[in-house]
Amino acid sequence: MNFAEGAHLVGGVITLALALGYAATGHARVGFTFAIITLLVHFYPLITQRWNRGRVARIVAARRKVNRGTEC
Fold it and tell me: pLDDT per residue over 15-57, tens digit each?
């Protein structure tokens, strides 16, 4: 996990806890709003970054393999 993923994870957990706290104290609309914001601002970028990191790693590994074959 890199820094950006960690920051989104921490921010998402804190915001989700805040949303649950509002929902538990009778402010369901505010809690629901915070939960939607959390999904859009924290968890979606976290999942996207993790998915793209895997794709980039495969591309880099393939290019290194090709480059090693041409150096001989």
Answer: 999 999 999 999 999 999 999 999 999 899 889 988 898 899 9
> CA 25 to CA 18: how far, in whole Å?
11
Nearest CA-CA partner of 41 in 16, 13, 12 = 12
Q: Which residue has the tokens 């706290």?
A: 21
Which DSSP string do the residues of 6-55 spell out, in sequence order? Answer: HHHHHHHHHHHHHHHHHHHTT-HHHHHHHHHHHIIIIIHHHHHHHHHHHH
Residues 6+ apart with CB under 8 A from 23: 30, 31, 32, 35
Which pTM was predicted? 0.69
Q: What is the DSSP letter of 2?
A: -
